[in-house]
Amino acid sequence: MRLPQLRHAVFLLLACVAANPKPAAAQDAGTIIRFTVHPAGDPTPALKHRLMPPLLEQRPGNAAVWYGKVAAEQQAFFVDREMWKAIEQADEWPLEEVLANEQIQKATRDSPIFFHLENAARSDHVDWQLPFRDQPYYTMLLPETQQTRQFSRLLAVRVRRQVAKRDFEGAIRSLQSGYALARFVAEGHTMVNGLVGIDESNAMSRQVREFVQHPESPNLYWALTALPDPLINARPGIEAELAALELSFPFLQDLTRSEYGEEYWRGQLEEVWKLARNFTDQSDDQLAFLGDVVRGYPIAKQGLIDAGWESDRVEKLAVSQAILAYSMLQYEARRDGLLKWLFVPYPASHPQPSVENVFAEADSEEILPLSGAFLPAFQGYRYAMARAQREIAVLRMVEAIRLYGSRHEGRIPPSLDAFEVPIPLDPMTGKPFEYRVDQQTAIIEGPPSHPSGSDSLHAEVRFATATP
């Protein structure tokens, strides 16, 4: 059984958290998401409320600088255990308790923390300055990325308290800071950044769930519609992941150089081999290395010839050079075969191969265990993105129902055709949500992410004034 290395374990954990932000018990197929709402019409003007800072409020500057100020200037705040225990628990408390709790009052009052977070959100770009060109990609630490998770929790509880106080404008401003944080964090050149950004986006969307159920809350249909779709830009992390092995071992970018002999190439091969074996929990002793070289060289030679390399060219390669060249051909084919699906919409990605099958095939064929060591759990990443998009789409549906109710004496739209604003498609399917009305309750449904999944969507929306 494969024992994943720390990087894979962290990646998978973050993918699970991002895709399932609530405890596992709350994610069963039978779980119903219930909304009790009140009719609310369009704001005037329609884009009066925005969930990302509008252009006129943006300023030149690097958001990462402002985020750095938060932690650097408020160190005592982030080690207050009693306060952070309350923040962690507050997501499950009723609004009345959030409003009354002294620790939450202390955490969410106006302070330089929120000033810096607002300034970060209004910066026109972010550059995390990750040192992926200066050190091995797989050894980078991401403390600033993990720190932002605390910022997100803090903003989430502040939104809840502002909603409880009926400070809807303040809540919207805090949501702007939270959604901008999620989008900026995901701009980092790792897929871990992307997963953390997805998790932070989900944290804000959960607060919007509460916001729209307050009797006096303004309608956010157009504010949600105006969000970037998808909110999280996955490309920086995907592009870095495609180049991660070469970023860690620059000599892999040109394996045809003839000026180096076997001694040089053996040293390079052993460096890659040791890291890959460590990542897959295999022995990295010298005897095992020599065994792989002896076993692998004839396989590599034939594999390069089968791939179209001229036999004379292959014969001129050093033994270790040939093994590296062939291993990279195999790795690139498997890497691209998996990661290419991240560039297509989720509904179109279902022909993708099973990661488990790819790893099993690689285990039996690869001389160097590159695929098992270095390929990320990308399917969890893509799924987490689609779940975050579905969350926002459902919120748009809820707000569209509130709009309809404001124009039709508090009634629920009887069918999708009756809605009077554009209805989002389900990001999981690329098709409209399944919709029906049962006893004055709108039911919004969507299938699971894959045929054997247990994560189907079932949301119920009813007006508080409706007769049970």
Written account of the structure:
The chain has 468 residues and is an alpha/beta fold. The chain folds into two domains: 6-240 and 380-463, no CATH class; 255-376, no CATH class. It is built from 19 helices and eight strands. The protein has helices at 6-19, 63-73, 81-90, 95-100, 102-108, 112-121, 143-164, 168-185, 191-212, 221-225, 235-242, 244-248, 262-279, 286-306, 311-316, 319-339, 355-365, 370-374, 378-407; strands at residues 33-37, 59-62, 123-125, 425-426, 431-432, 434-438, 441-446, 457-463. The strands form three sheets. The chain has a four-stranded mixed β-sheet, with helices on one face. Strands 2-3 form a two-stranded parallel sheet. Strands 4-5 form a two-stranded antiparallel ribbon. Strand 4 (425-426) and strand 5 (431-432) form a beta hairpin. It is elongated. Mean pLDDT is 89; it is low at 1-6 and 23-30.
Task: Considering the chains and any ligands shown, give keywords for the structure.
53% helix, disordered N terminus, elongated, alpha/beta, two-stranded parallel ribbon, 468 residues, 8 strands, four-stranded mixed sheet, 2 domains
Measured on Cα atoms, how large is the radius of gyration?
26 Å
**What is the approximate shape?**
elongated
Overall structural class, as computed from helix and strand content, comes to alpha/beta
Report the portion of residues in β strands.
Answer: 5-15%
**Domain module count:** 2
Poorly predicted runs = 1-6, 23-30
At a glance:
This protein has 468 residues and is an alpha/beta fold. The protein has 19 helices and eight strands.
